[in-house]
Amino acid sequence: MKNELVLQGIAASPGIAVGQAFLYEKEDFWIEERTISEGEVEREVEKFLKVMEEVRGELRETRERVLRELGEEAAKILDAHIAMVEDRAMIDETVERIRKERKNAEFAFFRTLRKVVKALKASDDPYLRERMYDVLDVQRRVVSRLMGEPSPSLAHLESEVVVVARDLTVSDTAHMHRGHVLGLATELGGSTSHVAILAHALNVPAVVGVKGITELVEPGDTVVVDGYRGVVHVNPDDEALDTYLKRRQALLEQEARLSVLRELPAETADGHTVSLEANIEFPEEVRTCLEVGAEGIGLYRTEFLFLIHPHLPSEEEQFRVYREVVEGMAPRPVVIRTLDLGGDKVGMSASPEANPFLGWRAIRVSLMRKEMFLEQLRAILRASEFGSVKIMFPMISGIDEFSEAREMVEKAKLQLRQEGACFRDPPVGAMIEVPSAALVADRLAREADFFSIGTNDLIQYTIAVDRGNDKVAYLFDPFHPAVLRLIYETIEAGHGRGVPVALCGEMASDPLATPVLLGMGLDSFSMNPKAIPEVKEIIRKSTLSEAREIARKVLAMHSGRDVREFLLGVYKESLGFVKDML
Ligand code: PEP
Ligand code: MG
Questions:
Q1: Whether residue 433 has its Cβ less than 6 Å from ligand 1
Q2: With bands split at pLDDT 50, 70 and 90, how would you rate the model's confidence at 192?
Q3: What tens digit of pLDDT does each residue of 463-500 get?
Q4: I need a surface site. Which of 268, 343, 556, 571 has the fewest CB within 10 A?
């Protein structure tokens, strides 16, 4: 009888995978230190240089493959590895160690990289600390080759498996045998880690951050990876397994059923139309957006471009990526949000902050790093020439901040005009995700061309509940009357001045919230592209007059729990189903 376990992790890539566990273990190396004879030295140097050449070739090939299959952004993740094996100083230092200290190549190389690893490990900057894994990844690859051992790899899996690992490096994931990896479950990693990003792009269900999983799972165990709920179920009994398989089937059927809505408008039964748009992090997602019938991109989180780059991307690099998105979506609109670094996303601060969510984040970073901000704005403006672009600032807390940011757009335009560059005149909007901005939305509406409500942050700041802390997650409630009131007042304030209002937090994809937001008069919903068909179905089944009535009732309620119960009742009665899937 096998041990049944239900392990909670972080949902990293949606979908349900069921399969046999493949434990991907990479033993720590034992690197032998040998002193070689004078006569062996040049042979050792040659061996080292040859291996470096081979690894370089291998990595370039992988990059090409990833580029073909997943596009430029994913391929760039491998650039840091390639840069490392091309690093002249690192090669020279190793060669010198072999020659001067007469050490075997693998030891000399290990010693050279040790300094780098130590420095990265000690860094205060989480981004640099993450880079340590890239160095270790390259080290493993080179050293195992020097020792004549095959490097562990997921490229040659012979059957379909669920991969269970402590961590997966970029090259593990990039080399992975596509057809044979059904799902991934790792101990380390967050929802924005490289594994999560690549798993998403590859359409492989993944759960990361599952504590102790490599100790708890045995090779051959049956493992279910539930990438929606962030759960890994090990050796489920027949009944549980059957439930997962049914859920997976139901999801596939639902997807097929909803695909017929693709070309239809998000129009209520009584003729009111809203716009359903997508949130993206990478240009490769444009394809999915078009497949599900997104009417635009309501939130393009550009910070991900900065997070996967080994250096700050130049204006030119940014321009190329933004243009790809804008052209891909044209003539549909694309809301490009300027950098939102800090908070839970890696910061730019030299020293850690006590309260990063209340600290140097988003527009605050941009306004203090004006050169960087201007480069981003210039890149966005230049991309505006190729379709329909809107510029949006994150984490606006008041009018002055918005005006200052808007002035920077004017400055960027002036520069481009003087250079004779072409651009259009994109609308400039504010995210409403700080309660102070929601409370002065009537004044901000004089300055901004549009609003987009970021409920992920609005909820965390309004209820004082860290959005990433599972201890207080029970308090994180989109239906808290304070949150609902701020959303409603923002919509009213915007409409009072003819400013369209969108909502781009997770709440936009919560089917329970759809009638409420519709009834409050929201113009546009922006969400994970995969959620669009379902929200569209609910809108098409609703009427605006009923939704208004629902919103009116909900706004008068006293607690989030009351709201939720009421909405569940509405669902059962008028929409005929209760959502439990995603
Ligand atoms: C939000 O805060 O709701 C939002 C959409 O932005 P992010 O999740 O990127 O902070
Ligand atoms: Mg936000």
A1: yes
A2: low
A3: 999 887 767 878 999 999 999 999 999 999 999 999 99
A4: 556
pLDDT at 179 over 70: yes
To the query of whether residue 504 is one of the catalytic residues in this protein, the response is yes
Question: If residue 303 lies in a helix (H) or strand (E), which one and from where to where?
Answer: helix 303-308
Query: Checking phi first, is residue 521 left (phi over 0); if not, alpha (psi -120 to 50) or beta?
Result: left
Tokens describing residue 208: 């990361």
Work out the percent of the chain whose per-residue pLDDT is above 90.
58
Buried b (16+ CB within 10 A) or exposed e, 80-94: bbbebbeeeebbebb
Confidence of residue 347 (pLDDT cuts 50, 70, 90): low
pLDDT band for 582, please (50, 70, 90 cuts).
very low
Q: What are phi and psi of 182, to 5 degrees?
A: -80, -35
As given in the structure block, the two tokens for residue 305 are 């471009």
Closest CA to 533 of 516, 518, 503, 511: 511
CB 76 within 8 A of CB 197: no
> DSSP strand E in 113-268: where?
161-165, 181-186, 206-208, 222-226, 231-234
Question: Residue 25: which residues within 8 A CB-CB, separation 6 or more?
Answer: 152, 165, 166, 214
Q: Which of 81, 194, 200, 480 is catalytic?
A: 194
CB 236 within 8 A of CB 221: no
Residue owning the nearest CA to atom 8 of ligand 1: 456
The token duo for 239 is 């009944």
CB proximity list for 514: less than 8 A, separation 6 or greater: 525, 535, 538, 539, 542
- Ligand 1: which residue has its CA nearest to atom 7? 456
Tell me the ligand closest to 476's alpha carbon.
Answer: 1
Q: Which helix (H) or strand (E) holds 365?
A: helix 363-368
- Pocket flag, ligand 1, residue 303 (CB < 6 Å): no
Task: Verify whether ligand 1 is closer than 6 Å to residue 191 (CB atom).
Answer: no
194 is catalytic: yes
Distance CA 420, CA 441 (A): 36
Residues pairing with 5 in the sheet: 234
Neighbours of 560 (CB within 10 A): 19
Structure tokens at 453: 């409500």
Nearest to 173 by CA among 133, 223, 128: 133
What percentage of the chain carries pLDDT values higher than 70? 92
User: Cβ contacts of residue 438 below 8 Å, gap of 6+?
Assistant: 432, 453, 458, 486, 487, 489, 490
The pair of three-digit structure tokens given for residue 470, joined into one six-digit string: 């599972």
